[in-house]
Amino acid sequence: MKRLHVHVSVEDISHSIRFYSALFASEPSVVKSDYAKWMLEDPRVNFAISTRGREPGLDHLGIQVETGDELQEVYARLRQAGGNIVEQGETTCCYAKSEKSWIDDPAGIAWETFHTTGESTDYGDGTGENGARVAHAKPAEQQSACCAPQAAPKSSSACC
To answer: How buried is 57 (Cβ within 10 angstroms: 0-12 exposed, 13-18 middle, 19+ buried)?
Structure first.
């Protein structure tokens, strides 16, 4: 079975370890002075953080659940992790109907937690995501939500 890998640059490793440990309900399997890694089974992901000189940033990450009960469990984790939770509620995005909430982690990366409840013939206009994801954004960043028009991605030579 494949495992998703996500690597996030952070500024404060200790603060970030506390946040992600609460969000994942798990302690990291590897901890160094500038690096931590969680090898999670649910969801199956190799999730790493580091302070290796890059500016913090990533568009957003997400946790998708299969039931409303699982969504409530993830919402409880968001509350435990701390921070401003934006409860978007029922919405349409990416040709899907779902219920979602958003939270910014210590590095300022938006985390989307959601339960897909059905399909949509409409892509969605992004208004819910724009409002949720840019609550703390600078004006130039306010059109970066997933359902808003996107600029071409920048090439990167960063390595894992």
So the answer is: exposed
The alpha-helical segments, DSSP class H, found in the chain are 13-24, 68-81, 127-133
Mapped onto helix, strand or coil, the DSSP state of residue 140 is helix
Indicate whether this model's pTM tops 0.90.
Answer: no
Cα–Cα distance measured from residue 129 to residue 137, given in angstroms and rounded to the nearest whole number: 12
Where in 42-152 does DSSP place strands (E)? 44-50, 60-65, 85-93, 96-104, 110-119
SS3 44: strand
Of 129, 154, 148, the closest CA to residue 62 belongs to 129
pLDDT digits 0-9 by tens, 89-100 = 898 876 678 898
